[in-house]
Design goal:
single chain, 15% helix, 8-stranded mixed sheet, 270 residues, 16 strands, alpha/beta
């Protein structure tokens, strides 16, 4: 083992090693630091004690693509979120054991964005970023047990991924507003509530199935039969005892009902 003498130690102390001076989006170090450090998340929030959760984002396809997972017990969840879907991975030619294949299929079924509250309300403005040629749609799961859900879908360019939305509430109301760029199907289901379409969206939709508890409609231009697989939007809304209202963003208006009963139910949830 070689030990430097006092003269060598003095030289080393007088001239410290140089530090990188190039600065990137994540700090100092340039491309090497960016390659070795994890990407900055787009928008990931986890909360169980806050009274509300809000977030905003800008449409930037170059941002890293991390899933959104926001879950609370009693708090309301609100905000504007732009969702970047996870790119689809081509199936491997080297098929492993059956157990490995089943596990891979389960992982691929995880939504790109999850918003859940046990007893709170959800009020969300949702958009997508990225490109449909990479991933056709962004999967979104919004659910609450006793709260109400209000979703405003933000329209984007045709190159953006489409919406694949799943909404569930046991006893709360569900309100959905879609943009004029929406092109796809909306499926509604309630056991004891009412289904209502506001005037603006009725002019742009075609009813495929309608019963007292279920309704399926097509909104916007639909791909021609035999015209190949064109990405389309899809929304499934379900509530047991609540009402469901559907409208066109920027055309229809919806005033949330107030009064004594609304204040009492809000007090009981909190």
């Amino acid at each position: 083992m070689m030990v430097p003498d006092d003269s060598e130690k003095a030289k080393m102390g007088a001239h410290p090693p140089p530090y990188p001076t190039e600065k990137d989006d994540y700090g100092y170090g340039g491309a090497a630091a960016a390659a070795s450090s994890p990407g900055k998340p787009l928008m990931v929030a986890n909360s169980s004690t806050a009274s509300s959760a809000t977030a905003t984002s800008s449409i930037d396809p170059s941002l890293p693509r991390d899933r959104i997972n926001l879950q609370t017990r009693f708090a309301d969840v609100s905000g504007t979120y732009y969702i970047a879907p996870t790119p689809q991975v081509a199936p491997s030619q080297n098929n492993g054991p059956g157990r490995r294949r089943r596990k891979k299929k389960k992982v691929q079924g995880i939504p790109d964005a999850v918003f859940r509250s046990r007893r709170g309300n959800l009020a969300l403005d949702l958009g997508t970023i990225g490109y449909a040629v990479e991933t056709a749609s962004a999967s979104i799961d919004a659910s609450t047990r006793s709260g109400s859900i209000s979703l405003n879908l933000i329209g984007g360019a045709r190159v953006r991924p489409r919406f694949d939305v799943e909404v569930n509430s046991r006893s709360g109301n569900v309100v959905l507003f879609v943009p004029n760029t929406f092109a796809g199907a909306i499926q509604l289901h309630t056991k004891s509530g009412d289904l209502e379409f506001l005037p603006g969206i009725t002019a742009e939709m075609r009813v495929v199935k309608s019963t007292e508890t279920e309704c399926l409609v097509l909104v916007g231009p639909q791909p021609p039969l035999g015209g190949g697989q064109i990405p389309t939007d899809f929304c499934r809304l379900r509530t047991r005892s609540g009402n469901i209202k559907i409208g066109m963003r920027g055309v229809d208006t919806y005033v949330k009902p107030g009064g004594l009963w609304e204040r009492l139910t809000s007090f009981m949830r909190n």
